[in-house]
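A quick aside before the break. I want you to see a complete sequence-to-structure record at least once, exactly as it would be stored in a machine-readable document. Don't worry about memorizing anything.
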Amino acid sequence: MTTTVFNYHTNVTDFASDVTNAVRKLFIAVFVKKPVAVAEQIAAEESAEETIWWLSSTANEVASHSPSLASELRYAAARA
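That is the input. The structure line, written in tokens, reads:
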């Protein structure tokens, strides 16, 4: 038979510092903007710019033989 004894003495200051550290970590996790989110936002903006460019260039290519399609593509690019 084994017996485990825990000698864990708590002081008020230790408890207060533990709570303070937990609150600080929670605040950082919830409110601080993360670099990954910034990178994803930049990638999304670049993707949107590529889409606008592609729609505009395709509209220019088809403008001579299909003006209504070109107009629709330009409209879609303006909304993107």
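Two observations worth writing down. The chain has one domain: 12-79. The two ends are 71 Å apart (CA to CA). We'll return to this after the break.
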